[in-house]
Design goal:
Layout: E1 15-18, H1 26-32, E2 35-36, E3 40-42, E4 58-60, E5 64-68, E6 81-85, E7 94-98, E8 101-102, E9 109-118, E10 123-132, E11 135-145, E12 152-161, E13 167-176, E14 191-196, E15 200-205, E16 216-225, E17 228-234, E18 238-247, E19 252-263, H2 270-285, H3 289-307, E20 310-312, H4 315-331, H5 358-370, H6 373-384, H7 387-396, H8 418-421, H9 427-442, H10 451-466, E21 468-470, E22 475-477, H11 495-512, H12 517-523, H13 527-539, E23 544-545, E24 550-551, H14 581-586, H15 595-601, H16 608-618, H17 629-639, H18 643-654, H19 676-685, E25 689-690, E26 696-698, E27 708-715, E28 718-725, E29 728-735, E30 739-743, E31 746-750
Parallel strand pairs: 26-30
Antiparallel strand pairs: 1-9, 2-3, 3-4, 5-6, 7-8, 7-13, 9-10, 10-11, 11-12, 12-19, 13-18, 14-15, 15-16, 16-19, 17-18, 20-27, 21-22, 23-24, 25-26, 27-28, 28-29, 30-31
Helix pairs in contact: 5-6, 5-9, 6-9, 6-10, 9-10, 9-11, 10-11, 11-13, 15-17, 17-18, 17-19, 18-19
Length: 751
């Protein structure tokens, strides 16, 4: 399939850099230069006002608002609200006046422009020369969100007079609560200012009708500068200070802005919140910019030393891989079990900043490999702690047990498309799979035998109530669902959904045989219930076609006009931006892996013939218009030794946003699919598997266009380094106890 790509940044191993202010693709530039530290984040919008098209956005982890579901086609069971991440009080705002004339890069004459995201150090830099009214000034901007002090934003701006005459530069720096979301109903504002002073602002989200928490944020700003403060203004929504520099020829002025950002998620009262932001501001006030930056860079250096993936011979691939890892690390670092990974992270408003099944299916496998087990366990605890909401979701559908939400902040479903809310129920299986995946990878059974067994039991109760028994076929079936392929809605017997439902029941029965007597009694599962679950396992219908030798995506799929994606005219791709929804639903084209998702999940359980027949049938029908799609296809292609196809799909997943393949990166990055580079490399090219008996194995190959690649992997208290070169593979135990692994089905002892 011919892909259309839009590459607006240069290719470099550690940097996302351009020397062009691309006014037509400004939003795309902003998305690709986003920053975050797990606690907060922002798009790469400018500090100063920009009169052209822009989507400014700063976001605070775990801070959201329940927007009323506004639909005229209300159905019983619909969620009452749609949760959304909200634009935070703008704490980076700084405007500049040159001899009284406001700087605006959309209209001003500029030269020597550079925009540079340094991924190694998570530092965003910008510089340019502006000519206004006969004078020239060079500006340099730097900003970072500290990972050494999570509640700290740091900015540094310097400006040099390149003119022969003196130039006056005024800096008007603000904390501004006059912000809104572009996708909000009726241009509403979400923040009410409670307190505002000359250097701080405390704002609370406006009341809501749904009983969800209101959040309070506090921000206190401090400055380090030799500039003269000449004015300050405080109004209802904004507090500003004005500084001035009278610069002689080639004189330089500098100002640093440091903002302590705290929220009511961590501080119970206004007094606590105020004390916290004042304490952080005081703590950093005497520390130099260089020391603040060094502390931040040291954490990133340690992070990269554990998880960097090196690719020699292909800078495009190298940049893509690091950009993927950078996006994940800036979004989620795992210390806070109340947080999860939104599909856009801190890079945009789309998808509402909520949690999807992406976390369990795609993110946990990567975090298991690049971080300590506590990080993945916290993601599972997030779901355990929201079990109460999952009960409500099932009850609203008139069903027993627990149904985890498709989209959520608090465990309650907050997505309002019926074919997703009611029908994309495979998510219950994906979460069960994540419990199994964590247990298999880490060898730690403490979660599955306690919290996990409760989750599995309640999800199994849902499945047992959701299936129905077909007397005619003497099999259990599940009608009216949407699988991972959302280009097929309201279908009967989606193979992936049925397969995961059966597997969840089977796995739950296994775990119930392993839990302690006390835990079993707490779960209150009767023998009749367990017998019913076993009956469903034994008699679940899974669509299969004998002639083709494939698992059928759902009943009726093979009755479509089956034509490959290559038959679609290129000017009609992507189809989701050119075709009506009706036409898409009638077509055979697949948004993302569906049957193949299940084969990827349980890759050891299928024969070579089964994998080959299903991949050869379904991949040519897949348009990969979900960002999650290319990675798993790359892994399966590598497993089948379709090396060229595996590399092409790796390139698509690793550079999905950098090259804007799906023409939607302007809305924000695809954070959860940034797992794709790691999955395609480690599970695909290196053939890494963890088997049910705990054996770690590899079957590596080297793409022809690469000279070598290497990565480090965390596994059961060890760090292993894998290097794949033209003359073979090398495996090294960096730390931890000796371990026997398998390489190409032969044992190898690492010591």
């Amino acid at each position: 399939m011919g892909l259309i790509m839009k590459r607006i940044f240069e290719v470099a191993p550690w940097n996302v850099v351009t020397h062009k202010l691309d006014k037509e693709n400004k939003r795309l530039q902003e998305s690709l230069t986003s920053l975050g530290n797990g606690y907060m984040g922002m798009r790469g919008n400018f500090e100063e006002d920009y009169s052209g098209d822009s989507l400014p956005g700063s976001y605070l982890a775990g801070v959201w608002y329940p927007d009323k579901t506004r639909v005229g086609w209300w159905k019983n069971g619909y969620p009452e609200y749609f949760g959304k991440v909200i634009n935070a009080v703008n704490f980076i705002k700084m405007n500049f006046l040159i001899n009284g004339s406001k700087l605006d890069l959309y209209t001003d004459k500029i030269s020597d422009f550079t925009l540079d995201l340094d991924m190694k150090n998570a530092l965003l830099k910008r510089s340019f020369i502006v000519e206004k009214d006969g004078v020239k000034v060079k500006f340099n901007f730097e900003r970072f969100l500290s990972v050494a002090q999570k509640e700290l934003s740091v900015q540094k701006v310097s400006f040099e007079n390149l003119s022969d005459d003196s130039v006056e530069v005024k800096v008007i720096s603000s904390l501004d609560a006059n912000v809104k979301n572009e996708d909000a109903n009726y241009d509403e504002h979400f923040w009410e200012v409670l307190e505002i002073t000359d250097n701080s602002i405390i704002a609370k989200t406006k009341p809501n009708d749904f009983g969800t928490p209101r959040f309070t944020s506090g921000m206190q700003v401090g400055y380090v500068t030799g500039l003269k403060e000449v004015d300050q203004t405080v109004d209802k929504l904004e507090t500003s200070k004005t500084f001035v520099a009278d610069l002689k020829a080639h004189e330089v002025g500098t100002i640093e802005k440091r903002v302590a950002v705290v929220t009511s998620r961590d501080y119970e009262t206004i007094d606590d919140l105020r004390d916290a932001m004042e304490g952080i501001a005081a703590k950093v006030s005497g520390v130099s910019y260089e020391d603040l930056l060094n502390a931040h860079e040291n954490v990133w250096d340690n992070r990269w030393s554990q998880s960097d993936i090196k690719i020699d011979g292909d800078t495009d691939a190298q940049q893509g891989m690091r950009f993927n890892l950078f996006g994940l690390f800036t979004t989620y670092s795992g210390e806070d079990s109340r947080l999860n990974i939104g599909p856009k992270g801190f890079t945009g408003e789309k998808y509402g900043g909520a949690t999807y099944w992406d976390t369990e299916a795609f993110c946990i496998p990567v975090y298991l490999g690049v971080s300590q087990p506590e990080v993945s366990r916290n993601l599972l605890m997030y779901r355990y702690n929201q079990l109460k909401g999952a009960y409500i979701n099932a009850e609203r559908q008139g069903l027993k047990g627990a149904l985890y939400p498709m989209v959520t902040f608090n465990g309650i479903e907050c997505h309002n498309e019926w074919e997703i809310t009611f029908e994309e129920i495979h998510r219950n299986g994906d979460i069960a799979f994540a419990i199994y995946n964590y247990t298999r990878y880490t060898g730690d059974k403490s979660f599955v035998l306690h919290e996990g067994s409760k989750m599995l039991t309640e999800m199994s109760r849902f499945w047992a109530d959701r299936v129905h028994y077909s007397k005619r076929n003497e099999q259990y079936m599940i009608h009216g669902v949407t699988g991972p392929d959302e280009y097929e809605n309201n279908v009967d017997n989606n193979w992936y959904t049925n397969f995961l439902a059966r597997w969840t029941l089977k796995y739950t029965l296994q775990i119930l045989g392993e839990v302690s007597k006390d835990q079993f009694e707490k779960l209150n599962v009767s023998k009749e219930e367990m017998d019913h679950w076993q009956d469903i396992v034994d008699k679940m219908y899974l669509p299969y076609d004998e002639d083709l030798g494939i698992f059928v995506q759902h009943d009726g799929f093979l009755d479509k006009d089956i034509q490959p994606v290559s038959s679609i005219p290129k000017d009609q791709l992507p189809i989701n931006q050119h075709w009506s929804w009706d036409k898409i639903l009638r077509s055979p084209y697949i948004k993302q892996g569906d049957v193949l998702q299940g084969i990827w999940d349980f890759i050891d359980d299928f024969s070579e013939r089964e994998k080959k027949r299903n991949f050869d049938f379904y991949e040519p029908l897949t348009v990969h218009e979900s960002s999650l799609s290319p990675a798993i296809h790359s892994v399966l292609a590598a497993d089948l030794h379709y090396d060229q196809k595996a590399v092409a799909l790796y390139e698509r997943t690793a550079r999905l946003d950098l090259d804007n393949y799906n023409n939607d990166t302007a809305d924000g990055l695809h954070i959860t699919s940034m797992t794709g580079g790691w999955l395609a490399m480690v599970q695909g090219f290196a053939g890494m598997r963890v088997h049910d008996d705990g054996t770690l194995s590899y079957k590596p190959f080297l793409p022809k266009k690469w000279n070598s690649y290497s990565f480090r992997q965390v596994f059961r208290g060890r760090v292993i380094e894998v290097a794949v070169k033209e003359n073979g593979s090398e495996f090294k135990l960096v730390s931890g106890d000796p371990l026997q692994i398998q390489v190409n089905d032969k044992p190898l002892m690492l010591k």
